[in-house]
Design brief:
Blueprint (H helix, E strand, L loop, with lengths): L8 H16 L2 E6 L5 H13 L4 E3 L2 H12 L16 E6 L3 H10 L2 E3 L11 E3 L2 E2 L6 H8 L4 E4 L2 E4 L3 E4 L7 H9 L5 E3 L2 E7 L2 E3 L1 H4 L3 H22 L6 H19 L8 H19 L5
Antiparallel strand pairs: 1-3, 1-11, 2-3, 4-10, 5-9, 6-8, 7-8, 11-12
Helix pairs in contact: 1-3
Length: 289
């Protein structure tokens, strides 16, 4: 029987290197790179490297083999195997999966539609004037489903129109007209498929956290907790200065109200006495002395 075909040494070395990377860092992420132009991908890789998240591009077979071998020592990596599909990149680093997700979101940018592409969301074209001049373009727009008419010598879309639903295939005709209208409905960038930090697996839906909203919620919760602690007189490093200030003002107010002279209360006591004397003088009509 013929023997099994030998595996080239460079492929074995590549898998071994990937395996060592997977075992040498706590954060592992699989990234989709489909549709990213080579030049843009190179820039993204440089930016990620500067932030401590190097992106490694390798054949899916090599990534799978490396994951299978590494999972024998680190079982948490095994769920990543089902995400090694299409064009895949690998990020192995020290870091936080939530911050990594935000970094990858920032790599995404709008791009023109391509004929045959799948609409990621409903593509809605707003109504109103266009930059087109009257002519054959009106028939082209109407044929593609755009509600175009000529009004006052201008090509106008009479209303908002949904040109494609999420999941629809975008025809070449629609893609061309969307681009000419300046509408770029697709996004190009790195797509985080899944991540593992130490022994925890994260799906993208878990990592998609609105950090601005979360920070605002934390600030709001902090202020409410501080107000409650001050109200009940609960001593902490944060509440003590506020409580001392409130106690000080209260003590001065009591001293002034009871006419108890101190270095702090005496000026207010004398000022109050002066105001009362002036008021009494005004009531009795006594001339000022």
């Amino acid at each position: 029987m013929p023997g099994r075909p030998s595996v080239p040494p460079e492929k074995i070395a590549r898998v071994a290197a990937l395996q060592q990377m997977l075992l040498g860092h706590p954060l592992t992420a699989l990234v989709g790179i489909r549709g990213v132009p080579a030049a843009a991908l190179q820039n993204m890789r440089q930016n990620l490297l500067q932030r401590g998240h190097p992106l490694v591009v390798a054949p899916n077979s090599a990534i799978r083999h490396a994951l299978e071998q590494a999972a024998k020592q680190r079982p948490a990596l095994r769920p990543l195997l089902e995400y090694v599909t299409d064009q895949t990149g690998l990020i192995v680093a020290d870091g936080n999966p939530f911050s990594l997700y935000q970094e990858l979101v920032q790599t995404r940018s709008a791009t023109p539609a391509r004929g045959g592409a799948i609409a990621p969301n409903d593509i809605v074209v707003p109504g109103g004037e266009t930059a087109f001049k009257p002519g054959p373009i009106v028939a082209e727009l109407q044929h593609a489903g755009f509600p175009a008419v000529i009004e006052k010598g201008k090509v106008v879309l009479k209303r908002d129109a949904t040109i494609a639903k999420a999941g629809d295939v975008i025809s070449a005709e629609k893609a061309n007209l969307l681009t000419r209208l300046g509408i770029f409905p697709l996004e190009v960038g790195l797509d985080l498929r899944a991540a593992v930090e130490r022994e925890t697996f994260y799906a993208p839906s878990v990592l998609a956290v609105d950090l601005t909203h979360q920070r605002a919620e934390l600030v709001r919760a902090y202020r409410r907790a501080l107000a409650l602690a001050v109200e009940v007189g609960y001593l902490t490093r944060e509440t003590l200065p506020i409580l001392l200030t409130r106690a000080y003002r209260g003590a001065i107010a009591v001293a002034v109200e009871s006419a108890y002279p101190t270095a702090k209360s005496l000026p207010e006591i004398l000022a109050r006495a002066f105001r009362e004397a002036k008021a009494l003088q005004a009531l009795t009509g006594t001339p000022a002395s």
